[in-house]
Amino acid sequence: MNYTKDLRIFLSDTEIQNDAHFLKLRTHYCGLVEVLYEGVSKTSDPLQWMPFQARKAAFTLMEEWCGYAANQAQIRQREEQMRRSMLDREVDMGHKNQASAAHEIERRDLRTAALSAMAALCAGPVSITTDSKVLLQFDVRRMLSWIDSIFETPSDRTHAIGRRALTNLLIHNREHPYLLDRAIEMCYLSKSAKALESYFEVVTQVLTHHEQYTLPFWKVLSAGLYTLGHEHSGIRMKSARLLRTLEAREQKNSKLQDLDISISDKTIAVYKLAQFETSRRLAKQHSELAFLVFSQFSYYFKDLQPDHQRNMVAAMLPWVQTVELQVNADGGPTANSYMLLVNMFEITVRCGNALHNEIQALWQALATGPYGGNVQLILNFIINLCLDKREQNYVDFSKQIVVHLSSTPAGLKVVEFLLMQINPRSMVSEKREPAAPPPDAANLPYLADLSALLPSSNKQVCKLKNSYEQSLTKSVRVRPWTDLSDPTGGSYGIAY
Prior knowledge:
Layout: H1 2-11, H2 14-17, H3 23-40, H4 46-49, H5 52-63, H6 72-88, H7 93-121, E1 127-129, E2 135-137, H8 140-151, H9 156-171, H10 178-189, H11 193-209, H12 217-227, H13 233-249, H14 260-264, H15 268-285, H16 290-301, H17 306-321, H18 335-351, H19 356-367, H20 374-389, H21 392-406, H22 411-421, H23 464-473, E3 477-480, E4 492-495
Antiparallel strand pairs: 1-2, 3-4
């Protein structure tokens, strides 16, 4: 340890950092620190041999050599100066080419050795409090950004090192659940399929092999259902196994193993149907988690590409169908119901044009479920929303929702409800304060902010008290299927 400490101080010197002759020494230093730390970690008191600060200092020094540092532009400039300085000492052109090739090999070896040693150093706490009550900690955001950069590369070898680093980080820091939350988040937001695969493999490995690592079931359930629709069969099978394993720990069984063959199939129509069926079975078995699962999905929905949003809708639909919207003592929606309606409205505004059929399916799923009172609560919500916001934009999107609802079996009730709102009393203008969201809604994973969703103006663009009901009613047209002279009054259908 004393030797590695002296060597670290020596290699940290500015002149030594700029000298190409010490590239091999840096590589050997990285290898020494890696095996030394792995050996020290097997002792009863690792901090006695390698203090927290020594581990952090070694990690920080190697960060400048691994090729994925935050200040990579400055490091590349220094490396280029180092290379030119070395070549300037060579007179013969043939020697220059050989020296340049040898330098590049040494630089590549150093990067690999530094990455591997840093992955080993991740196998420890990211923060400790000393006996004198001083908090020592790594820059965790910087470490997570470093792992992100590793997973953005196409190299299989580099990805393997990145997975080892992330696994070590998660296993040795169970008291910091946000690390695993971040890994799960990247299963939604990774820019490439290869990065998503690496993140999901680590999450699967940690949750499967380390039962003491607890996480709310609905968080893993949501991520698993989303990745179940991925184009890579390997990711789908890992997702299916993870869902079965964690559901068994919940002491429930949705018989998901029956769908394994369909999930592994290469035909899109087959595995997409299997994803929907898996989600349907889980929604039936765990209906009490419906609001949490939907809130978690809607948190990431707006940040996904349209193809991935369609994938998420397939997983969302069965959960939306199980939802019963409810009102509280004041007559307004409960926290869960408010969250679902607000988030659905946000999804409609953001994606209504690009994903018209999918958004329509979500609203219709909410209206055609086993709970008939959902339609009236939806209409009450959008009408009150228009009156609170007093903006034409909200009316326009509300009209879209009315059209979606009108094509369901409850379509006649939609028209009847809107016609009932057109009466002298409801057209009398009154001042009203916008209704505040239920306070408990803030405790859910995600609640959309409608005030930041649509642009608003100082003018009251629409005469809402006089026109909002007519505007919504014009979105659908009542057409008699039978003669109105029929004594029964005829039955009505909805036409676009």
